[in-house]
Amino acid sequence: MAFDGIVTKAICSELEELSGARIDKIFEPDKNTILIGFYINNANYCLNICLDATNCRLNLTTHQKANPKVAPNFCMVLRKYLIGMRIKNFVTNDLERVVTIELEGFNDIDDIISYKLIVELMGKHCNVILLDETNTIIDCLRHITIKDDSNNKTRNLLPHSKYKYPTTTKLNFMDTSFDEFKKIIDDNYIDTNTDTNYNNNTSTNITKLLANTFNGFSKSFVQNSLNYLNLNLDSISSIRKLYDYFKLIINNTDSLALTFKTVTNEKNKKDYFLVPSGDEVTQNNNTTPNLNLNFFIDDFYYQKESSESFKLYRNSILKLILEILKKYNTRLLHIDEKLKECENMDTYKKYGELITANLYKIENKNLSYVEVEDYYNNLEKIKIPLNKKYLPNVNAKMYFKKYSKLKNTLEIVTIQKEETKRELSYIESIVYELENCHTIEEVSEIYDEISENVIFKEKLESYANSKTNNMNNKNNKIYLKKKLLSKNKEVTFNPNKYVVDGYTVLVRT
Q1: In sequence order, what DSSP letters do the residues of 171-197 get, joined into one string?
Q2: Which long-range contacts (CB under 8 A, 24 or more apart) does 246-250 make?
Q3: For the segment 366-385, what is each residue's pLDDT rounded down to a tens digit?
Q4: Is residue 27 within 8 Å of residue 65, measured between CB atoms?
Q5: Distance (Å, whole) CA 168 – CA 411
Q6: Does domain 316-441 have CATH number 2.20.25?
Q7: C-alpha distances in Å from residue 178, one per residue of 9, 173, 205, 315
Q8: pLDDT tens figures, 431-475
């Protein structure tokens, strides 16, 4: 399921329990991630803002990330304005994927000041914007100008510009009655005005229709809801059931009555979607906030990104090694061709000897061939081809020279073949090990091993130094070595999280 408006609202409803927390740490591990550490009720938490186009999200995290030696400019700006500020509230507008983090604190002369940190989770247009009290942009992670198709205007996300919230032409589901909901389906999938004639209705079409009509709905949410309810929408009652289910989910995004369910989608990938937990909504009187949805999202995407990083890292090295393997296989083919040529070297020696032995019988002029007696084969006649450009005695010398060359070649390529076969065997063993790796650490060990081997060293260096093979290039799958990181790799935030018998245990340290 995409991190749509419904998930955004549910996650933020949990985060509201942490209102009043004091920000004490801000990091920017990479260009798509901002980590905000804050402190409340004797516990430390870390807010993960991920702006990756495919995995954008906002949630609490307990997973560590390494930080660069020098903090990026936007990270320094956030530290300047937000360190020491308190989180006043997490605000969402309906089911928009825009989260406003309201912040409040004191300046140097103890006057109350306030800022807003806007998190826009909109695919390739993801951004984090810092606003002052007048909604003027102080700075943003990505300085861009976006065309707003809904009103044919542009949004300037640049410092000193007035911030404008993104707009949408989609409908608000909570303002839609059942009759209007049914009419949307009827207008697209019913041939006549009968109650049961849903001839053109398919799950795929309904998914696309509802996701494009209602704000905050993703295709995966609609599809998983249909699968969860086992609905075909072949009658008014089934449409009513789907409508009521959507109402139930949206009405409970700010309660404890929802949970995530994991499934495997059509592409054989893990997916998740919100479902009613089945428990009655109870007031949480415990001092420890209920953050199950946040930690579920944290674990889900951590495992997903770890798997993607592992595959990318392994496949990039595997691709390089397979190129080298192909090169050595080609080399072995050339060696075999040369060995095949060497099979005839004794014949060339024989031709040279027969020509030399019969020179007194052969006319001293340019000939295309000579026919002599083969004293190696009971004096039977043998026809020896000659190069017509040269005299027979020169042809004899050429045959001896060719024999000598092939003899030397045979000695060299025999050794080369043995060496190539040993190297091929080693490369194939590396390929086997890579294909059976399960963690990035195992791949890194293999990388460290081959980086010191002369077979791979030159190739690895050429990839590492090539700008066209930089991992920032979206069309490139080469990912050989991570950038230099700071010594501060063990950045942790309380509470520590453990899973015991299916239960999440939070341990304060």
Answers
A1: BPGGG--HHHHHHHHHHHH-SSS-SS-
A2: 246/173, 247/173, 247/174, 248/276, 249/6, 249/225, 249/274, 249/275, 249/276, 250/6, 250/9, 250/95, 250/173, 250/174
A3: 888 888 888 888 888 888 89
A4: yes
A5: 77
A6: no
A7: 23, 10, 19, 50
A8: 999 989 888 888 888 888 888 788 887 777 776 666 444 444 444
CATH code matching the domain that covers 5-169+486-507, chosen among 3.30.70.1490, 2.30.310.10, 3.40.50.2300, 3.50.50.60: 2.30.310.10
Nearest residue to 271 via CA among 229, 241, 227? 227
Give the mean pLDDT of the chain. 83
Opening angle at CA 372, ends 375 and 399, nearest 5:
85
Q: Can you tell me the distance from the alpha carbon of 50 to that of 141, in angstroms, rounded to the nearest whole number?
A: 12
Q: Which is it for strands 270-276 and 258-264: parallel, antiparallel or unpaired? A: antiparallel
Under 8 Å between Cβ of 64 and 78: no
* ω into 276 cis (within 30 of 0): no
Phi, psi torsion values for 367, nearest 5 degrees:
-130, 155
Full-prediction pTM beyond 0.85? Answer: no
**Token output for 113:** 């000041």
Beta-ladder partners of 39: 22, 44
Domain ranges of the chain: 5-169+486-507, 173-276, 316-441
Instruction: Tell me, rounded to whole angstroms, the distance of Cα 228 from its chain centroid.
Output: 28
